[in-house]
Write a structure and sequence with these properties.
Number of domains: 1
Shape: globular
Largest sheet: 5 strands, mixed
CATH topology: Nucleotidyltransferase, domain 5
Number of strands: 5
Helix content: 25-40%
Number of helices: 4
Distance between the termini: 18 Å
InterPro entries: eFR1_2_sf
CATH class: Alpha Beta
CATH superfamily: eRF1 domain 2
CATH architecture: 2-Layer Sandwich
Length: 127
Amino acid sequence: MTTKKKLGIWMDHSFAHLMEFTSKHFEIETIESEFALKDSTSHLLKPVKLMKDKEKKQLYDYYKKIGETIKDYKRVILFGPTDAKIELFDLLSEDERFLKIKFEIKHTDKMTVNQQHNFVKQYFSGV
């Protein structure tokens, strides 16, 4: 019997830390957004409907990269300080490849990598 794959993702509009929860250690992958690399952080506060097409495309590409990793998991916790996690979830909800994945979304403050690990560890240890 295979174990269920569990993934924690701390994210904002700049980057995402993807942490696979296993009994041994965490595998971490970082995905960076072109949107945040080229634009000032003040743009990150704009509602999506007010963003320019180029900015929307950059965010879409960022979310698509994350989605390609998520598609192989059974359970995913999305957490972080911005609405990026909700925007990602909304996009993935429209794709039938993600319908069998159990998602949960939690709002958290900015966290260090160690705090992110502890959050994922505590979340999945209680599940």
